[in-house]
Amino acid sequence: MTDGEIAFIHEEESFRHKHALKIYEQALRSEGAQTVVIDLANATVATTSAFARLVLLRRELRRNGRDLVVAGLRDQPAYLFEINRLEAVLPRAA
Question: What global pTM score does this model have?
Fold first, then answer.
């Protein structure tokens, strides 16, 4: 983590729309962070609607001069990310 970043670490094994919505609301309220990092290392299952909410979040953040990256993808969430070609709209953390 660098200065200007804020991380949201998802603790549960499943990453669903309700989780992404909570992150969405918190990230928009966060101030001072140029980059929002969503850490999904604990998630072994995800839904497309959760990723869709992150796409909307990134769009909103970019309107305000900020950005979002996803970190820790593995298992089914990584597969879902890949087959839906989300790397074009949701960059992965380095």
Answer: 0.93
Encoded tokens for 16: 């669903």
CA distance 25 to 80: 23
Confidence of residue 2 (pLDDT cuts 50, 70, 90): low
Could you report how far apart the first and last alpha carbons of the chain are, in Å?
11
Q: How far apart are CA 3 and CA 63, in angstroms?
A: 21
What is d(CA 56, CA 64) in angstroms, rounded to the nearest whole number?
Answer: 13
| For the chain, counts of helices (H) and of strands (E) | 3, 5
With beta carbons less than 8 A apart as the criterion, state whether 81 and 50 touch.
no
CA dist 75 → 14, 25, 30 (Å): 11, 26, 29
Note whether 85 and 49 are within 8 A (CB).
no
Per DSSP, the three-state class of 66 is: coil
